[in-house]
Amino acid sequence: MSQTAAPADLLGRLESCLGRGGLLTNADDLAPYAVDWRRLFPGRPAAVARPANTAQVAAVMAACHAAGVPVVPQGGHTGLAGGATPDASGGQVVLSLARMNAIRRVDPLGLTLEAEAGCILKVAQDAAEAEGRLLPVSLAAEGSAMLGGVIATNAGGINVLRYGMTRNLVLGLEVVLADGTVVDGLRALRKDNAGYDWKQLFIGSEGTLGIVTAAILRLVPRPRHTATALLAVPDPAAALRLLRAAQDALGDTIQAFELIAGESLALVAEHAGLTSPIAEAGWTVLMEAGSSLEGLREAVETLLGEVLERGDATDGVLAESGQQAAALWALREHITEAEARAGKSVKHDVSVPIPAIPDFLAAAGEALAAGAPGTRPNIFGHMGDGNIHYNVIIGPEHGSEAINRIVHDTVARFGGSISAEHGIGQYRVDELVRHRRPEEMALARRIKDALDPQGLLNPGKVLRAGP
User: Fold this and answer.
1) Looking at the structure, do residues 206 and 259 belong to the same domain, yes or no?
2) Can you give the residue ranges of the FAD-binding PCMH-type domain (predicted)?
3) What are the angstrom distances between the C-alpha of 144 and each of 65, 75, 80, 148?
């Protein structure tokens, strides 16, 4: 693996196959591609390749493979684990999919959308909406995240409770392998049991096994009615009882069920100027349901009346309009921004079995108080699918590695995962080794070696670089 500047003859070949504007080598042009969104992992790319089609991606990969030069795929650059950033060696080529942004077709009857990897998620959502359909992947970065990166990281978001992770929505993929081989599996089939479902290897692989260049995604009918409610709850256990009651009353119309700590809403009020419309509470639930059938709002109103009467909720508001619903969601969506303004933090994207959430939160709080006094947990996330963002605001006396160990070790006690939806990238590589069984890591290495024997695809991400 090259650890020095890419050979000049390679850059010449890349420029020749990519055409005018397809290869960036000027330092100022490279700067936006050299550091992650959180600015934790600065790098130094040798060049940035910007292919306009799959054939050019294949040509770039074949040339880099022959020269032994590593390639780092990059989409919308919105990841939180440093998975799309080159190292500081100056010997890695960044491959940006931004120019491959076409929506090829939307099929409203077959409920599918085919698009290239550089298509912005929001653009794809809007194309589906124009046909009365819904692409249900929804996340904070949807205005800049690209479909290739969404697939490569198996992104989650607020709708996982109802529609599942991105993996559940991918019907077909086109992928370019490390040596430039193009594998076309763009089939819009709901049932295809002919051999191995190889596309699953690339979904969530963070660009370490191949580069997604196009995809066929599953759409769903767009709900005509939605109901969004914000409720104050006494504690996480009461929130779980509320979830169970919502499941019983509303079934699979529940699209989102978010748990938010009172401290998180206090940060939003202080640093984003947004205040909750309900009484101050230790914990808050933001819930949304959607259906094309009449009677949804009445069913939600009945549910809220019952949980308020039982004491599982102490206050609540049901949005009267789309504008009010957006205002409720703004409270949730501004938490990360408010946290950034509050000071340095250590982020944890973890999951535990849903019934274990209250006990996990209690245990993690006790462990932090004992092992890192003076820290401030900022807790929010997708309670309905077991994913909690357990972020910790720290002072100069605290080390992020120690905080990681405290939180991740607590997660492990409850049979959870150290990455629910953000991926491993380079941020959690060592922690993955600590918390995955050796047999699982060995299997992952065998898959990596089979598809990328030279270790040139996104080295150092997900798995440690080298043998």
Assistant:
1) no
2) 41-222
3) 29, 9, 14, 12
